[in-house]
Amino acid sequence: MGAVSEREAPTGGTAAHGSDFLQLRPEDAPSGGKADWLAGRLRQAITDRRLTVGSRLPATRVLAAELRVSRGVVTEAYRRLAEDGHVEGRRRGGTVVVAAPPARGPKVPHPGRTASRSPFTGEPGADVFDALRAADARVDLTPGRPDLSAFPRTAWLRAERAVLAELSTADLGYGDPRGAPRLRRAVADWLARSRGIRVEPDGILIVAGTAQALTLLHPVLSADGVTGVAVEDPGSLGTRQHLRNGGLATPPVPVDDQGPRVDALRATGARAVLLTPAHQFPTGVVTSGERRRELLRWAADGGLILEDDYDAEHRYDRPPVPALRSLLADRLCYMGSVSKLLAPALRIGWVIPPPRHLHALTEAKRFTDLGNAALPQLVLARLMESGQLERHLRLLRARHIRRRDAMIDAVTAHLPGAVVHGAAAGLHLTVTYAADVPDTELAAAALARGVKCHPLSWHRQLPGPQGLVLGYAADPPGVLTEGVRTLGQALRELTRRSRSSCHRLPPSVTGVY
Amino acid sequence: MGAVSEREAPTGGTAAHGSDFLQLRPEDAPSGGKADWLAGRLRQAITDRRLTVGSRLPATRVLAAELRVSRGVVTEAYRRLAEDGHVEGRRRGGTVVVAAPPARGPKVPHPGRTASRSPFTGEPGADVFDALRAADARVDLTPGRPDLSAFPRTAWLRAERAVLAELSTADLGYGDPRGAPRLRRAVADWLARSRGIRVEPDGILIVAGTAQALTLLHPVLSADGVTGVAVEDPGSLGTRQHLRNGGLATPPVPVDDQGPRVDALRATGARAVLLTPAHQFPTGVVTSGERRRELLRWAADGGLILEDDYDAEHRYDRPPVPALRSLLADRLCYMGSVSKLLAPALRIGWVIPPPRHLHALTEAKRFTDLGNAALPQLVLARLMESGQLERHLRLLRARHIRRRDAMIDAVTAHLPGAVVHGAAAGLHLTVTYAADVPDTELAAAALARGVKCHPLSWHRQLPGPQGLVLGYAADPPGVLTEGVRTLGQALRELTRRSRSSCHRLPPSVTGVY
Q1: Are strands B332-337 and B304-308 parallel, antiparallel or unpaired?
Q2: Which region is the signal sequence (chains A, B) (predicted)?
Q3: How many angstroms separate the CA atoms of B201 and B184, rounded?
Q4: Three-state secondary-structure class, residue A485
Q5: Pairing of β B229-233 and β A349-352
Q6: What is the pLDDT confidence band of residue B106, given thresholds at 50, 70 and 90?
Q7: Which of B172, B200, B222 should we substitute to test contact with A (largest number of A Cβ atoms within 10 Å)?
């Protein structure tokens, strides 16, 4: 007895044919009126927007074969639509939809975008960065962006060509949720060379940036009984929002000119802390040797350090600072990414968890997305192996120094009395000022004049001096100068108003980072 | 008064210099012994594996500039390492590490891989697909993979070149968590053309495949009071594991030859169900018109349908079946991806949630990874816009038909008495057999003979006939025939053994899908 096959009679009917294109079934057509029928179906699809203006109809030959009608039927249907003015024949471009009746369904509003509200009013929500990004402005001084115009497009394309040429079919299938072995090896070598970290590739997990690293960590931390993660203050608003979204408390730990105050950390009672030791965000403080040793003692007493090494590669006139991870492997979870090295849009980062959390984190990554996409991982691995990434970084560094200097000069000229913090490294400056003007008001006034930046108070939970966080990496000196000049105008205007109304208390500037 | 800048004296010290490469600080070197010092530091880094074999040292010019030493110092240090045999000069390849002392730290074992255990023993865990993927085999008949050798590498590279040429710097920054607007438009058009779905681009969320869609849905469903998602039986093991990992129950709903039994669905009391209406996994049943109407009534009574449209584009000798989403928008969450269209390694998919869940799902995506990577999204958009994806699908279809036919012929020849299900569409066949041999045993015996496949019982919670799920899309006819021949041998061998031991009950084959 042979196998019983359903090939001839699938799902209890007779074999049929048709086209995926609009699910056309020629059986539905009246015999002798096929061109009419086809034209009608296409017209309907154009009217109800299943076919939008600009979309291309299938080649007549192809559609005729799929529908098992003569090619003349399809040609005739297309001709009628062309006569209506719905489509147009374009020699090599095929037949394209060019017009549709005006009727249209209601547009779904952008979720989570509050276009009418200023991003600087009230508590900043999860969508505040989107709102600021969407706002119109001449000059964008928001922090956290490298010089994206320097993205190595040619090198990326060349590496992609090589990857596509040598890729195995297995590489295109489902992969290791921890990431491509080749990239994990390249990252291990990169971190050894540039960050002083010794780790085997099997100890690394490739993720979609630090945001994902935190998402994967939430359940792992919760399972460990961690209910809160202490954060630096000032410290990144985005990170704090992220931890809170994961149901974790974020007790603040003040930062002074040596780094986070470990006595204050102990006082919070938190069992985990998120730190930026190489270049504190936003103050730029480098955690001192003594403070590092105190942190190691705190970790030895049962604490877990989450090290966000977000922009350590960008340093200018100070010695390189190895990652804390180079001193501590057991009680530390290291996180890095290419967002500041190459581009945030690549969504590639890495985590080196403490060994005891590696398995749980891998499982979390598996269930989240089965692992990062393969092609960009392999392209990045090549850029790391070939030394192109180092070259890119050197190019960026030279450019960033000029931009930083231009911004400092502009601050000197246009924001007299302001104090610049954290200039030795990174992609941004923090500028504090003595004037009695809330920084959210200043940022709002700047935005009204076409300049985007972050108010320092966004990145605080504790009281402290007013200020702005200003990115300088993404734009050329002229643009930066113009932006800071506008900030100066806005501050002068607000100060005048504040003085004339005389309702505010004098400022008490105490914060030195 | 000018701004006070920390530029000259960062973090309270004197300006210093050094290299990110191994965090070298020339201040540490004894004066007059700099080459010695540098050679020592490099040797140490090679010994402790911060510099691995194959890695390239910086160009002498570059390292000398960074350390502010003469180039001769670096050249001399490299020469000493070359004399040790640690490094080798290669004209254009620079100076490369070629050897290191044998001492090495302990290797971290692969988490979640149980190499010694057969994947077919006991309950399949979350890592069972990894374990099967990692197993050595001559022939891989696991389902769910398209013909990856057909991946349009040239078209992909061409589209990537165009994308890199026209990309704005803003495209390289942080983007819309819902996905690139251009891809959402292209997907909306694609789904309108090929799946009969009318949706505005703003109603679509780009995600990292269906696995991520489910992860994002878990908290949204939980917030809605949904504690369980009913699943088809047989139905995908991977999906079921995923739902369970999200803390959701997965009550089974039997599938018959019309699709999932809606009376049984009502009896579970579940408020949500995950379905594969266009081509049920693994049986291949197309949900009938009457059953679709019953499902719509169930949804109207408050149910939510999760439609997993995982391989609907691959259909051969049956008419196209529009997505359920084309009939129902309010109570249905549609999920699709390019995993079966192009390659799983791309990790790109889309969700069309019910409008009331769109905002929560967008926020979940934001916190998970801030949105998919930009470049692959834009490349895919171009392939969709230009008609290349349709062309690719036509090419695949012709190839898949030949492969499917070869597999059916092989089943007829080598698995006499077996019944083939679901041949009219998809990338796999389900084959049931009457012999009294558990399918996990058969799959294990096949793997021992070098052939991978899924036992049907993996994809079941309810009792039913033994069988195998066999992918045919990924390999040419000769390989498939060889694989099925081996399955036949294994089955005959096991049947003989089973008869001679006479301990088993006779089989009761009742399942018709």
Answers
A1: parallel
A2: none
A3: 5
A4: helix
A5: unpaired
A6: very low
A7: B172
Nearest to A204 by CA among A98, A335, A14, A69: A335
CB B357 within 8 A of CB B330: no
Q: How far is A233 from chain B (nearest CA, A)?
A: 17
Distance CA A426, CA A416 (A): 23
Residue type, A10: P
Say how far apart CA B363 and CA B367 lie, in whole Å. Answer: 6
Residues sharing a CB contact under 8 Å with residue B143, sequence separation 6 or more, in sequence order: B282, B427, B428, B453, B454, B469, B470, B471
Among B314, B38, B2, smallest CA distance to A420 is for B2
Q: CB under 8 Å to A401, separation ≥6 — which residues?
A: A316
Rounded Cα distance between A408 and A403, Å, is: 9
Distant-in-sequence, close-in-space partners of B35: CB < 8 Å, separation ≥ 6: B72, B73, B74, B76, B77, B80
B260: three-class secondary structure by DSSP: strand
B187-221 pLDDT per residue, tens: 999 999 999 999 999 999 999 999 999 999 998 99
Q: Cβ distance B371 to B348 under 8 Å?
A: no
Question: pLDDT band for position B429 (50/70/90)?
Answer: very high
pLDDT band with cut points at 50, 70 and 90 for residue A506? very low
Q: Are the C-beta atoms of B249 and B228 separated by less than 8 Å?
A: yes
Q: Do B23 and A322 touch (CB under 8 A)?
A: yes
Name the one residue in this structure whose structure tokens are 């910086």: B58
User: Cα dist. B135→A358, B138, B428, B446 in Å?
Assistant: 22, 10, 20, 12
pTM for the full model?
Answer: 0.82
Res B107 pLDDT > 90: no
| φ, ψ (nearest 5 deg) of residue A25 | -125, 110
Q: What angle do CA A429, A153, B208 make, to 5 degrees?
A: 85
Residue A297 CA to residue B256 CA, distance in Å, equals 64
Q: Which of A472-486, A487-501, B411-425 has the lowest mean pLDDT?
A: A487-501
Dihedral of the alpha carbons of B402, B403, B405, B407, in degrees to the nearest 10: 160
* B 348-387: CB under 8 A from A: 348, 355, 358-359, 362-363, 366-376, 387
